[in-house]
Specification:
The chain is α+β, with helices and mostly antiparallel strands. It contains seven helices and six strands. The strands form two sheets. Strands 2-1-6 form a three-stranded mixed beta sheet, with helices on one face. Strands 3-4-5 form a three-stranded antiparallel beta sheet, covered by helices on one side. Strand 4 and strand 5 form a beta hairpin. It is rod-shaped and about 80 Å long. It starts with a helix and ends with a strand. 20% of the residues are buried.
């Protein structure tokens, strides 16, 4: 009998609903249902609270009959816990990495470590777009569908690329980027396009 079947067995014996057990251990009734169906297993950190909520011992939860040799049932507990960790660890690590990347990457992707590094203040053609230029940029086609297509100068900035728009040809956008780069190389403080 797996741990989900044990949970279902003791939950029914104690006349607890899945919702009530879920509330007691801090999960949803759907999560309890998944455990009981064998779709997933509870995390190691939830094993003691589940046993406590069901009013049973860990041995009962794992379906271990006490024997004279404690090492046998301790080994079985270790195997079950190890199995649970092996099943859930990849998903936990993947979620943690996704969370860390989604929070940290935008902050540091375009951050510049050297505070003394020269930057150029670029004021766009429309006079409403202002961005710091640190030596990187590219020409971007905004729409190949429109006639004529529109182009922009894309400059990496904290929080995402800033677009200096309003160029009707790729060449005019490239000339603007070249002017920006020349001003940056000459260590100018600002440029207005």
């Amino acid at each position: 009998m797996n741990i989900g079947e044990q949970i279902a067995k003791y939950r029914k014996e104690k006349h607890l609903t899945q919702e009530r057990l879920g509330e007691a251990v801090g999960v949803t009734n759907r999560t309890v249902s998944k455990w009981e169906a064998g779709v997933s297993s509870p995390g190691v950190d939830l094993i003691p609270p589940i046993a406590c909520a069901l009013g049973i011992t860990l041995e009962q939860l794992f379906g271990i009959e006490k024997t004279s040799e404690n090492t046998d049932y301790m080994q079985k507990i270790k195997e079950i816990i190890s199995s649970s960790i092996e099943e859930s660890l990849p998903a936990i690590i993947e979620d943690a990495l996704d969370d860390a990347l989604s929070e940290l990457l935008p902050k540091y992707l375009y951050a510049h470590n050297n505070k003394d590094e020269h930057s150029l203040l670029v004021i766009g053609r429309d006079k409403t777009t202002v961005v710091r230029f640190y030596g990187e940029g590219r020409v971007t086609c905004m729409s190949r569908i429109s006639n004529p297509p529109m182009f922009a100068v894309s400059i990496p900035a904290q929080g995402g690329d800033k677009l200096l728009m309003g160029y009707t040809t790729q060449e005019s956008a490239a000339e603007a980027l070249q002017s920006i780069f020349k001003a940056y190389t000459a260590k100018m403080e600002k440029i207005e396009l």
